Amino acid sequence: MGVSLKDVAQRAGVSVKTVSNVVNSYPHVTPQMRARVQKAIDELGYRPNLTARHLRKGRTGIIALAVPELGNPYFAELAGAVIDAAARHDYTVLVDHTAGRREREIHVSQGFSSHVIDGLILSPIHLETEDLTGRDETVPLVLLGEREYEAPYDHIAIDNVAAAREAVRHLLSLGHRRIAFLGSRTGHERQPAHMRLRGWREELVAAGIEPDEALVVVTDGYGRADGAAAMAALLDRGERPDAVFAYNDLIAIGAMRTLTERGLRIPEDVAVAGFDDIEDGRFCAVPLTTISPDKSAIARLAVDRLTARLTGQPPAEPRRERPGHRLVIRDSTAGRSR
Amino acid sequence: MGVSLKDVAQRAGVSVKTVSNVVNSYPHVTPQMRARVQKAIDELGYRPNLTARHLRKGRTGIIALAVPELGNPYFAELAGAVIDAAARHDYTVLVDHTAGRREREIHVSQGFSSHVIDGLILSPIHLETEDLTGRDETVPLVLLGEREYEAPYDHIAIDNVAAAREAVRHLLSLGHRRIAFLGSRTGHERQPAHMRLRGWREELVAAGIEPDEALVVVTDGYGRADGAAAMAALLDRGERPDAVFAYNDLIAIGAMRTLTERGLRIPEDVAVAGFDDIEDGRFCAVPLTTISPDKSAIARLAVDRLTARLTGQPPAEPRRERPGHRLVIRDSTAGRSR
DNA sequence: CTGAAAGCGCTTACAG
DNA sequence: CTGAAAGCGCTTACAG
């Protein structure tokens, strides 16, 4: 069907090797030879078959990125950053989303398209350490995000505990004492929200305040609707926090929705802080205070770790990289200080 | 490096063909033979090399989706829908974003990774019809979105003119007369905003109102910041619309930000309607009235058209598909009617 | 129902 | 500086 190297070689009256040399800009080809071959290439409209090249070279130039949900702006923004970072290394990115479902995460982690991807960046939600044993070790894996694993993989994540503490400290500094946490999860220690919840607890204790577990709300998911429902549930059971620290911005935005509907003012009645610094938060009616992870650093580090392993560097120890973050104070906690 | 079919065949003491038959669940294999081969597969940890299969079959099972910006929730949500729709056809999706830059769109449209993708779904911003001539016709292309092309490709887009007219009609029905349009573009007829702007004009004329071009604001981009700037520019030059129809929800959200900052109430002072129905709009302090395109229908139709061409069906005429849309009325135009 | 062989389109030692 | 040949790991007629 397509035009092959052989066709070009025939047309140019040279060997396949010579055409290959030209296509790959091999330096030692005489200019007139190059011109002759190029002419044949143009006339025939030849385009190299990358699949064949991949088979031959044993690599494809494709890395996969699997995130829980592309509809979550944090992951969409991160995916964009990964695509850009990968492009700088001449890699193409295959984006998949797992809906946070463990079986999809397992499938992906085990190299969902065997031999079509050179490496994988995975941001898990429900994946467990044991799911990671017995995976095909020929495909390097870089883990992203808050979950901790006892498995020998590079892991890129900001310091979630420290970041959460900063957010809570900020709320405390404004005089808030009844600070709710929205977006916890039931289940064991390694739940995604664990670190941020721990930061909430630690900072309260450090301030001499007993963490009130009645102010911790479990949500079903991580979306705006979950945040709205969580806030409503909290208010409905008679709790009246003076501040809310949400697992992420979406939950915070949902919570603000409920607060507004209930006639509570932000931040006068209830201050709200989130986590992720998605663009939505900057344009809310009341712009949202949040922890801003350095997304482009996360993307860059992830791609760098992957390409380092891909280019056969000495198989270094799995590394724990901690990209930066910062607290961004906006009206949802600070009043009209913008 | 990897374990190949041949290794498995050797171990099981059968021919390569037999192993291939087992791997591909070819029906006519005796159970005991299947068991024997499966045992060898398990022992060796064999995993088929998809690249080789792809080379052999001439297809890869990968389709590419190129959108302007993954950071725009509309495209992120659409990408998620395309990934899901493609999975139902056993296709994997390679997501790329073009930043709306024409040269990236050209690159992508010409099959950026030749022979690694079977087909392409492209949502262009600045691509021109002439950029589409001379592309490699072996890779089917489906176009998405508002731009019109005189090129023989399947094109999936809601009826943008009709949808825009519905939005404007809704605003008119509420008594608004000075309705601004935010998010126009300079340049020729085929600019992306053209159809929606045309809908705005047509509906005003139909209502016996002379479209006031002073109420049309050109923006640099399609983000929240552009909407905020556009609204500020409009107010700064002394125009005071009683309603705003924005090219998309992001621009509408940005505009609402500016209106709130200027102390104007929504919808009492200025009603606002957007386009896209992204989730953000549902959770704004003032939930946003918008045109809701049927994203999953768009995704499904796009993937269906592509797979139809991929599975060698009679090369039908390029089709123009019109998925549905509906007007979703929320507080930003309707007051407290939720 | 299974085997031996060709070939998808490349790249890469190996010669010359 | 260029050519002839092998081989990456599959699938698929073609035999039997």
What would you note in describing this structure?
Chains A, B: It holds the Pfam family LacI. Chains A, B: One of its GO terms (molecular function) is DNA binding. Chains A, B: Residues 309-338 are annotated as: Disordered. Two copies of one chain form a homodimer. In chain A, 42% of the residues lie in helices and 15% in strands. Chain A is of the alpha/beta class and 338 residues long. In chain A, the strands form two sheets. Chain A has a six-stranded parallel beta sheet with strand order 2-1-3-4-5-11, with helices on both faces. Chain A has a six-stranded mixed beta sheet with strand order 7-6-8-9-10-12, with helices on both faces. Chain A is built from 14 helices and twelve strands. Chain A has three domains: 5-48, Orthogonal Bundle (434 Repressor (Amino-terminal Domain)), CATH 1.10.260.40; 59-158 and 295-324, Response regulator (Rossmann fold), CATH 3.40.50.2300; 160-293, Rossmann fold (3-Layer(aba) Sandwich). The structure holds a DNA duplex (16 and 16 nucleotides).
Comma- or semicolon-separated keywords:
alpha/beta, 14 helices, 434 Repressor (Amino-terminal Domain), six-stranded mixed beta sheet, Rossmann fold, homodimer, 42% helix, DNA-binding, 338 residues
User: Which of globular, elongated, flat, extended, rod-shaped describes the shape of chain A?
Assistant: elongated
Please indicate the count of domains of chain A: 3
What is the topology, as strand order, of the major beta sheet of chain A? 2-1-3-4-5-11
Q: State the order of secondary-structure elements of chain A, H for helix, E for strand.
A: HHHHEHEHEHEEHEHEHEHEHEHEEH
Percent strand of chain A: 15-25%
Oligomer: homodimer
- CATH topology of the largest domain in chain A, which one? Rossmann fold
Which regions of chain A are unreliable across 5 or more consecutive residues at pLDDT < 50?
none
Rg calculated over all Cα atoms of chain A: 26 Å
